[in-house]
Each structure stands twice: as C-alpha cells, then as structure tokens.
Design goal:
globular, single chain, 56% helix, 12 helices, disordered N terminus, mainly alpha
C-alpha cells in the first residue's frame, strides 16, 4: 500500500477527534489561569512514570520483547503505569508492536516509514488499521490474563480517575498539565520513535528496515532512540550499546537487577555490540 492508497482505508473519526481535543487541551495549559510551575512539575513526573516506567520499560522492553523478567506484582505495576499514557489498550499495543517488528518498513507495517514522515508519526492512527486482525496471533502470552484484559478495556476510565485525583490535589492546572499537556508530549515522544528514528541519525547494524540511531530521540524517550540497535537485536534489554549511547531505561533495569527485581536479562554479546 502506498501513501495514496491510505485513502482507501476508512477514517477513524474517534481517534481523530480525541487527538484534536488532547492537543487543544495541551495548548490551553499555557493560558494564564491554568499555567503553574507546580503543574509543569506534575507533568514531568507523570511523563517519567507513564512514558518512562510504563511505556518504555513496561510495555516495550518487558512485555513486548520479554527482554527481562520481574516479579508479577512489578510487571503489573509497570503495565498499569503504561496504561496511564493513554496509548490504547495494552493487548492492542503489544500486538501491533510485535506485528511492526515482523514487518518493519514493509507495506503491511501500519506505520511504515517509507510512506512518509507524517504517516509514520501520526497519520497512520487516523485510519483503520488492518494489522489489528493479527493481534490475537501476537498476544497469546497476555491475552487471557484478567488484569491485562481489564487494562485493555478500561484504559480511558482510568485516565478519567487520574484526572479527578489531580483536580482534587491541585485544581484545573494539575488536570491540564498532568493530563492534556503530559499526554501530548508523551505521544509525540513515542511517535518520534516510529518516524524520526527511521529518518534521522546513523546506522550501526545492517537491518532489513531503515531504522536509525538518533541521540535526541533517545534523550526524550529514556533510551528508545537507539532504534537501529533495537531492530538489529530486538531481544536486548539494552538499546544504547556504545558507552556514549545514553540509555536511561537500561540503567533502570540495572538498578532493578541489583535489587533482585529483574532477572533473566537478555543482552547482546559484548563483541557483537562493539562491531
């Protein structure tokens, strides 16, 4: 399917309207009556909890790639944190991500970067996603788990509950910064991994896709910007393979490993990583 062929897909108006509302809310967070440095602080803290611990550590490296193991209570906690990033249901997300790796930058890849930067960044979400039909095939390890089914079905109500809690603590400023502004920033950080790290940066390994290592994406996504490394060795818990490729999430895994909370950590052999 080419970019032009995307017009044959039905528009997902629910997604389009939701994205517009969230972006308007993020802009409104800068209004005089809603801006506060305390709100910005809440947004930054929740950015790390939901985007760093939740999406990057939990949904991506732990659940999607099983690059390490944790006690079940910690796995569930990280999965819950990721749910608060409001990036869809966890089963849906993991299934599509595994599908992406199998077909990266191929025609059936739902955010194929060869269809353009804007398509891989956000446009693909504005249409129906044919790959959704393959999700059951890719999520047999989590699809029957009652907790994951709950998170998959109630991710939006959980965000509403978070908004109510934030309002009770700090009023509308905390809501607009802790929900709208934070969600939009985490969205774009995640989307940059689909778009920018298939366009900007350098390639250390030869892969079948056009993934790259991009330092500035790595800084905003807790290490996910070393994307060419990741596509070359999907199982590795460590994405920054050179000493200067800062990978905050790998450091977090090392801390968990020191505490005895991360086991069976999968890594690329040192000799291979240095090549």
């Amino acid at each position: 399917m080419t970019v032009a062929a995307s017009t044959k897909l039905r528009l997902d108006w629910t997604m389009i309207i939701a994205l517009v509302i969230f972006h308007i809310g993020a802009v409104c967070a800068f209004l005089p009556g809603l801006f506060s440095w305390q709100g910005v602080g809440v947004a930054l803290l929740l950015h790390w909890i939901t985007g760093g611990l939740g999406i990057t550590l939990g949904w991506h490296r732990l659940l999607s790639h099983r690059s390490f193991q944790t006690p079940k209570w910690l796995e569930y906690f990280l999965a819950f944190c990721g749910t608060l990033a409001l990036q869809g249901g966890i089963i849906w997300w993991v299934g599509l991500h595994r599908h992406h790796h199998l077909h990266s930058d191929e025609d059936v890849d739902h955010h194929d970067s060869k269809k353009g930067f804007l398509w891989s960044h956000v446009r693909w979400m504005c249409f129906e996603i044919p790959a959704e039909s393959d999700i059951p095939r890719f999520t047999k390890d989590i699809a029957d788990d009652p907790f994951y089914q709950f998170l998959n079905n109630y991710f939006f109500p959980l965000q509403v509950v978070l908004g109510v809690i934030l309002y009770a603590i700090g009023g509308w400023s905390f809501v607009f910064w802790g929900v709208f502004a934070r969600l939009v920033v985490v969205y774009h950080c995640t989307w940059l991994v689909n778009s920018a790290t298939h366009k900007f940066g350098y390639r250390t390994f030869e892969t079948t896709d056009i993934s790259t290592n991009c330092w500035w994406v790595a800084l905003t996504t807790y290490g996910e910007g070393w994307h060419n490394n990741h596509h070359a060795y999907q199982y590795s818990a460590r994405h920054g393979m050179k000493w200067w490729e800062l990978d905050i999430t790998w450091i977090t895994i090392q801390v968990l490993q020191f505490l005895g909370l991360a086991t069976k950590v999968k890594l690329v052999e040192a000799k291979t990583a240095e090549e």
